[in-house]
Amino acid sequence: PHAGPLESKNEAAMSELVPEPRQKPVVPMKPMGINANLLGYIGIDTIIEQMRKKTMKTGFDFNIMVVGQSGLGKSTLVNTLFKSQVSRKSSGWNREEKIPKTVEIKAIGHVIEEGGVKMKLTVIDTPGFGDQINNENCWEPIEKYINEQYEKFLKEEVNIARKKRIPDTRVHCCLYFISPTGHSLRPLDLEFMKHLSKVVNIIPVIAKADTMTLEEKIEFKQRVRKELEVNGIEFYPQKEFDEDLEDKTENDKIRQESMPFAVVGSDKEYQVNGKRVLGRKTPWGIIEVENLTHCEFALLRDFVIRTHLQDLKEVTHNIHYETYRAKRLNDNGGLPPMTVETEENHESNL
Amino acid sequence: IAFQGEGCRTVPLSGHVGFDSLPDQLVNKSVNHGFCFNILCVGETGLGKSTLMDTLFNTKFEGDPASHSQPGVQLKSNTYDLQESNVNLKLTIVSTVGFGDQINKEDSYKPIVEFIDAQFEAYLQEELKIKRVLHNYHDTRIHACLYFIAPTGHSLKSLDLVTMKKLDSKVNIIPIIAKSDAISKSELTKFKIKITSELVSNGVQIYQFPTDDESVAEINGTMNAHLPFAVIGSTEELKIGNKMMKARQYPWGTVQVENEAHCDFVKLREMLIRVNMEDLREQTHTRHYELYRRCKLEEMGFKDTDPDSKPFSLQETYEAKRNEFLGELQKKEEAMRQMFVQRVKEKEAELKEAEKELHEKFDRLKKLHQDEKKKLEDKKKSLDDEVNAFKQRKTAAELLQSQAQQAGGSQTLKRDKERKK
């Protein structure tokens, strides 16, 4: 096919291009030379296709953490999001399992593939969060885990002989589950989000939203948004990282109207109007998970997976990780002792 | 794939999730950000480097032809913003100026190597910064080096071999035969074979178009066999048949630039831009830059130790950098202090001078005043003396007069009497 005339190849390349190309107004770059006038097709737009091929070959990592009291449907929601049994619940979890006495961090990885795109998805569960009588500082193990992943990445990045592709275990997205009390946020919710919104992308979701009526939902969301604002909690997408006007408009709408998403999760299918849908069956009806009039699951899914997945990773890498790195390198004398051995060696090196 | 080995199960999906849009999301972000591509053209003066760039990118870049009388090899760099559909490309073209013109060419390769290293160094510096902005960094590292070979038809010049050997571990070299309309078809085949064998026997690593991706493996494989590309550049358009084409007109015929039977220009464009631009960028970053970085850091005395003792060249690097920085800071402070002390001394000396002058002036004036005073006093004294003398005379005269009057009174009477007589 390449022996043929160039024109047809270009058409083929064009048709494989981005289905919805974002025709952005050109962000003007300061030319240091002349702005050259192109008098014919060169082919520099083929770089898009070249890049796409390369990324498809490498594959992607995505690490999502779920935080919330037990019983809020965290595992079910993640399974619903990724339409497969990726969460802790299904990898041998037993409903009678005791709630742990402290917050535990459990990360499980699976490989999923769709449309030729391979993704290593790691779901990090935090059983025991908020379940104790005294929940003081229960966010600390979580913050520690997140920082440990940054540390791991930093260590790799700083090697003399580096890996071609540094494995990314950093938490790209943290779904925080809010109990659908209908009143307001709990002190624990505020404390957690205050601490963690500075180190990781937090997306608050209202769990088990089928216990609220439409009006209750709207009011609750408004109150939650207000409380988050009053407490200075910047959830993802953070205002300060909007790249341009288009981003800002899009994200403003999400921040001010849609979030926090009121969701319902389910891995069971039912027959509704001749279609098989994911839902929850109650005596008063079937709650369809992907029906936007029933709950906002589809909005959450589209937001996290279909439009902002890459952005979640980039904000984690370009901002949260860099913040951690800068702080780490500024600290005089460096390494916090993480294991006894390291400490000894660390001292001997001084 | 690489990460499967970490013990991850593949699980099936029961419906459409939507993360297949991930490559699009990534590409969109890159498009919004814009792309960088940096080409280095190395070759003797007059081999048509600028013309080839103009032809490749369908435009007239600025610049006048260089002269042959440059004292040394220099590098001239220009950056242009090109746009095609929704792709914004920041293209930087660096050309050697005066390469091959000197009588002694032993050091000709040095400015080129230094330039390439300088770009790596700039990136490394940015990467090592504490507060860094890598994702907004304007990447100036050279992604492709087009090496222009003179169309002698015989073999490579020793300058070419030496230069390419120095560059092959630092940059992706794509050798091309310039002005190839000077060579006949048969000579060209022999020339290419000679060049290739000389490169191999001298251990020069030129860039190989990648053949690991099935979609491009075939074309890249074929193209690899056509290296070095024999190119012709021309921005002049001539009417051939009923189309306007880039061509060069000779009395014996017209050479069409984009005719694959006439030269390899189309192949070069295809490989350099339309198929492997991204790979060239990736190789520069993951291979050449990493090599530079590793060598540089090792040169600075750092090494990764084995995993069990776990210390951390980063800590040392940063300590070293911090110490270096503090050292420099101290030096600068010291220099400033010295300068300050120096200035103070100078000012003091100036002030002392002024003071001395003032004193002198004061003394002069005082002396003057004293002289004047003395003069006045002398005059006064002499005046006093005169007055005294006058007084004395006056007293004496008065005395005489009164004596004379007494004596003369009678005499006067006598005289008067005698007169009356």
Automatic annotation (TrEMBL), chain A:
Domain (Septin-type G) ranges: 58-331
Name this polypeptide is given: Neuronal-specific septin-3
Positions of the UniProt region annotated as Disordered: 1-24, 328-350
Localization annotation: Cytoplasm
A molecular function (GO) term: GTP binding
Main location: cytoplasm
Superkingdom of the organism of origin: Eukaryota
Keywords: Cytoplasm, GTP-binding, Nucleotide-binding
One Pfam family of this chain: Septin
Lineage: Eukaryota, Metazoa, Chordata, Craniata, Vertebrata
Gene name linked to the record: Sept3
Family note: Belongs to the TRAFAC class TrmE-Era-EngA-EngB-Septin-like GTPase superfamily. Septin GTPase family.
From TrEMBL, chain B:
Keyword GTP-binding: yes
Nucleotide-binding among keywords: yes
Bias type Low complexity, positions: 399-411
Chain ranges of the Septin-type G domain: 33-299
UniProtKB keywords: Coiled coil, GTP-binding, Nucleotide-binding
Region listing for Disordered, in residue ranges: 399-421
Matching SUPFAM superfamilies: P-loop containing nucleoside triphosphate hydrolases
InterPro entries referenced in this protein's UniProt entry, alphabetically: G_SEPTIN_dom, P-loop_NTPase, Septin
One Gene Ontology MF term: GTP binding
Coiled-coil intervals: 337-393
Pfam families cross-referenced by the UniProt entry: Septin
Similarity comment text for this entry: Belongs to the TRAFAC class TrmE-Era-EngA-EngB-Septin-like GTPase superfamily. Septin GTPase family.
Name recorded for this polypeptide: SEPT6 protein
Origin species: Chunga burmeisteri
Gene: Sept6
